Amino acid sequence: MSVHDVVRTLYDKRRNLVENQRELQQQIEGDLDAEGNGEAQARWDALDKEQNDIGQRINNLLAGAEAEKEMSAQRERFETVIADPKAQADASTETYAKIDSWMRAGQKGREDTYVRPFIDLNLEQHDLTKGTATAGAELIPTGFVRTLYEHLVAQAGVRQTNATLYTTSSGENLLIPKTATHGGNATIIAEGVAGAESDPTFGQVSVGAYKYFKIIDISRELLEDSAIDVVGYLARAMGTAMGLGNGAHLVTGTGTGQPQGVANSPSGITGPVGTTLTFGLSTAGNGPGDGLIDLYHNVVAGYRRSSWWIMNDLTAAVIRKIKTGSANFDYLWQPGVSVGTPDTILGRPVVTDPTMAVPAANAVSVGFGDFSAYYAIRDVVGLRFERSDESKFATDQVAFRGILRTDAKQVVNGAAGAVKFFTHSAT
Predict the structure, then answer these.
(1) Could you tell me the CA-to-CA distances from 40 to 48, 82, 88 in Å, in that order?
(2) Does 195 score more than 90 pLDDT?
(3) CA nearest 102: which of 300, 236, 264, 205?
(4) Rounded CA gap, 213 and 375, in Å?
(5) Between the CA of residue 50 and those of 3, 14, 22, 24, 406, what are the distances in Å?
(6) CATH of 92-153+168-176+203-257+379-409, one of 3.30.2400, 3.40.1800, 1.10.287, 1.10.3470
């Protein structure tokens, strides 16, 4: 059975679990026996855990299949270069076009703005050789499993939203026009009276191009003798490390000497006293998730139709447990139950980003709104992945470097902004 067949089967199973939970919920609501209600709740919790486990397995299977596909393509490219001396020489300055596939994914109906989340491999800056076990010798076979098990860390999430992405061929400042006011409302005037002029006003945002840089030196012995696709691995490592380095600035960047983050000088709502770690109080008239509902309606209705939620994964764990009322088991968080369908809160999709704050006193933990109007990301050309066989001539090493030129700015922000944020109370 193929990976995609397994994923479809798991989605069907997850959908059935959701249906079973809904039936069990009805039973809980209609059962006045406290002991029976407790048993039903225990079964409901078990179903919820199984549903979450299936969701994680689906994510792992899809990520593995995509990585295997990309590694195979890189391996084929690498073997072609090694077999052809001319191609090998040209490779020292060639930009690997396929690296963009790790930055950009299919559109899913949204124009050319979707960018794949990055997975940081957290590489330290050490030269790689095969003479030392921790520096590369373990990759040389003497009876060898030909799969490199790469560790994963949290993904950067801003590029998963519908934030607008501009890709340019050069790095001069890019001006993005925007409206400042619409010129006010129409008014009633008497017959024969001249109407007052009320013109709209406009502004613009300037986006530059900061340079992110990473270099890895690797011994020629390790490169030539390894039983795995080292070049393919380095390409992924370079692209993902670049992405997560930039991803931190896309959330908290100051806009001075670095991109401006989405959560820089946020506008939105602040929870009432007692919401230091929560999003509402379980008291009459104030449910445990009321802060999220308030945030939802703090965004202009026209933006809400294309809005996304963004938060830290630990914040997501808190919100997943919020019920809409104490007497039932309806949750604000609704899991996606089909391929390509994200989890939702109040009907709008959710992404997680490790740089977003977790619930704490005065913390800005959740953003919600239309990022396509609020935030613009500008990439110059795309990620460059380049090889040099000459720069480390004295040590017979090969240098690989990655360069990403990018910037990002808030566009429609402030009191009438397209994205708003929830700030926890001080006490």
Answers:
(1) 12, 63, 65
(2) no
(3) 236
(4) 24
(5) 20, 8, 15, 15, 41
(6) 3.30.2400
Domain layout of the chain by residue ranges: 1-91, 92-153+168-176+203-257+379-409
Q: Cα dist. 145→64, 74, 137, 227, 254 in Å?
A: 16, 19, 14, 9, 45
Query: pLDDT (tens digit, 9 = 90+) per residue, 109-130?
Result: 333 333 333 333 333 445 666 5
Helix segments in 151-229, DSSP class H: 220-225
Residue 346 gets the label, from left (phi > 0), alpha (psi -120 to 50) or beta, of left
DSSP string, 343-378: PEETTEEEEE-TTSPPS-TT-EEEEEE-HHHHEEEE
pLDDT at residue 90, as a whole number: 52
What is the topology classification, in CATH, of domain 1-91? Answer: Methane Monooxygenase Hydroxylase; Chain G, domain 1 (1.20.58)
Nearest of 10, 8, 19, 117 to residue 55 by alpha carbon: 10
* Tens-place pLDDT, residues 26-79: 777 666 555 556 777 788 788 888 888 888 888 777 777 777 777 677 666 666
**pTM over 0.70, yes/no:** no
Beta-strand runs (E) in 261-374: 268-270, 308-311, 333-334, 344-345, 348-352, 364-369
Q: In whole angstroms, give the CA distance from residue 181 to residue 83.
A: 62
Beta carbons within 8 Å of 38's beta carbon, 6+ residues apart: none
Mean of pLDDT values over 384-401: 90
304: number of CA atoms within 13 Å, CB side?
A: 12
| Residue 423, both tokens | 């700030």
Full strand arrangement of the beta sheet holding 210-219:
164-168, 375-392, 397-410, 210-219
> Which tens digit of pLDDT belongs to each residue from 234-270?
888 887 888 889 999 999 999 999 999 999 999 999 9
